[in-house]
Amino acid sequence: MEPTVSSKKYKIKFTIVKQWPGAQYDLKQETEICVRILRVDSQNICVEFSKVKGDQAHFIETFQEYRDNTLNWSNNTTLENKEKNRAQES
């Protein structure tokens, strides 16, 4: 994985390469992913994953791995859920 990092933006683009060694032909699949960090309010941020190019199933598999393992400490919510909770508190 070779990341491209910008010092002016809160985003990172990287390519995940999935290989199948031992196949009849040298098979590999590249999926380019962009991760952006957005400020929702003074206490919350949003981490957005988007597929730039490549296979959708490989992107979903990678996203789920990050969500379930790397980011499992975070509060997994959506903006719609947060707005519903605020409305119910009022």
Architecture overview:
This protein has 90 residues and is an alpha+beta fold. It has 2 helices and 4 strands, in the order E-E-E-E-H-H. The chain has helices at 56-70, 79-89, and strands at 4-5, 11-20, 27-39, 45-53. The chain has a 4-stranded antiparallel sheet with strand order 1-2-3-4, covered by helices on one side. The relative contact order is 0.14. The mean pLDDT is 80.
Count of alpha/pi helices: 2
Which class do the helix and strand fractions yield?
alpha+beta
Biggest β-sheet: count, sense, barrel? Answer: 4 strands, antiparallel
Q: Radius of gyration, rounded?
A: 17 Å
Order of strands side by side in the largest beta sheet? 1-2-3-4
Low-confidence segments: none
Percentage of residues in helical conformation: 25-40%
Residue fraction in strands: 35-45%
Element pattern in H and E: EEEEHH
Would you count the extended β strands for me? 4
Let me know the average pLDDT.
80
- Termini gap: 46 Å
Shape: elongated
